[in-house]
Structures are given as C-alpha cells and as structure tokens.
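seq:
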Amino acid sequence: MADEKDKNEKILSQNEVDSLLNAVRSGEVSVESGVGGAGSVQKYDFSQQRKLVRARMPGLKIIFDRFQRTYRQTLSSLVRKVVLVEYLQTEMQRYGEWVSNLAVPSCLSILRLSPLIGQSIVSLEPAFVYTLIDNIFGGGRLGQFKKKEGDFTSIELKMIQRLVQYCTADLEKAWSTIHELNFEFVRTDTNPEYVSIVAPSDVVVVTDVSITFEDVTSKMQIVIPLFALDPVKQLLSDHTYVEQTQPNPNWKIWMGDSIRSSKAELGVRLGNTEVTMRDVLGLSVGDTVQLNQYVAEPLHMSLEGVSKFAVKLGTHCGQQAVQILSVAENPTPK
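struct:
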C-alpha cells in the first residue's frame, strides 16, 4: 500500500499541470534549466584521442631521450662547438593540422621506414640550416649569416642530406633496443603542399626536439604516421620492457671483472703418431716414440679445446714453457 501511495504522489493532477504550463508561457519557469535542456549538453572533442594514444606508448619518450644524448655528441663533433639537443615532447596530430602550421619555405626531408610501412619526415627550420651549413664551411657566428630563404642550392641539399643521415643514424641506435628500424633518405622539399606522406585526416606522431647552437635555439620535428607504428605498438606500450632494455653503464665493468677473474684451460699438443698394439705392449722405460712434429715447427696451443695460438717450445726459469708466436685468425676446435 505504501508503494502504491508513493506512486500516486509522483503523478501531477490536472490543476498542477495547467499551472506549470501557464508558468512556462509567462516565463516564470525557464525550460533552459531543465535536465534535458541545452545546458546539460557537453561538447566532445574527438581530437582528445591523442592523449589516450600517447599514454599507451611511453616507450617513445625513452627512445628520444636516448636519441638526444647521441645526437648532441654528433652535432658537437661536426661543428666542433657545444650544441645542446633537448627532447621536448611527443604528441599526436592530424597530418593536415601539422602541415597547416608549417611556414613556406620549409626544410622537409622525407625518409622511408624499413621494415615498417610508410614514410616519415624530419623537419628543420631553414634559417637554422643555412647558418649551420655556413658555420660548417668556416662561416661566422650563428645568427650573423643572412640569406633570403628560398630553394636550396645543390651543395646545400647535399649538406642537408648529410645532416639528416647523421640524425637517422642516431635514431636507429635509439630504436635498436626496441626494434630494428632503418630510415632511408628519399628527398628534401621546401613546399609543404608537395609533401604528403598520409591523408590529411590521418594521425601522425610528432616529436619536438630543441637544438641550441651558440645563442640561437631552433626546433626539429620528427613525424611518423601512427599506423606505421602498429607492428611495434605493443613494445612501445610495455613500459617495463622498455626500461629494462636500457643498458646499465656498470654492466661493462662487472662483465670485465668477471671475465678477468675467470679461469681457462690452456694446452699444448707436442704432436701425435700411430703405432700398433704390438708396439704399445712392447714399450718399456727409456723407449723413444717418434712424433709427426718437427722440433723447429711451431706448436698449437688450444684455449678451452680451441686452437688459438701458434707457440714455440722452450724453458723459462728452469721449467718447460712456450712462447706465443702468433694468434690464429680463424680459431678451430681441436
């Protein structure tokens, strides 16, 4: 009975319905504030999927952390000056959005990914490229060199290709612990409209790297299509695996100490011969057995059963010893 009473209380009477309609017509009650009104509708940005994708691939940050260290050394040794390379961020963008933010002209180098499917882009700021090339050829301080930006000369294109190849070599080293990846240089273009590696609506992985040379800071961007990373997405999302594959700087010391303290068996074979069982039964103390090895010829010394050195028999401090003459180029088991 109580449930039926509550149910009846929730039903409005005809007078209450008429009063509510009149209040709405007169403006005393606003329909905008209702639960089903427009105020309860929330906008949804489909581009927010970038954050979800980035969170699932923490391995990319670790890869580019390694890259910034090696590329810093590469550029510093190239220009013989201190160059700072710093990883900034990795984010997801629509390819069309990324291209629309590029200036004309730009320095866009297209790279073929192998064994993955697709192509990637290394974007450099033209002003930085001009001044860096000028510095390599003995020019003055960065920022003092002025040139009207436009098409690159053949010499500049060759130098850009060399710079990008240095970059890709360090990228391959950074990727090596996760997946063997090769970046093959295709071409360099200055007009973003002529560079189309994916459809404008496709998502690309954009990594920003800051390069500081003397007093000028420039930005390099590395763009990889998201679909190209599908075969290695599981490796990039496994944060524990990626962290464990980083080489420990102390491992080399520990392994060296272990190898130096380990023991190995060395043996020298003086020679051999074949005899009959009758001759063996007839051997006695003082008999001489002739071997197939001449005294002047080098002997073979084996390391753990593998012939490693050519030696000469002799004595040292009253004990039999051998002197190493050479090291075998192709050790063979004995």
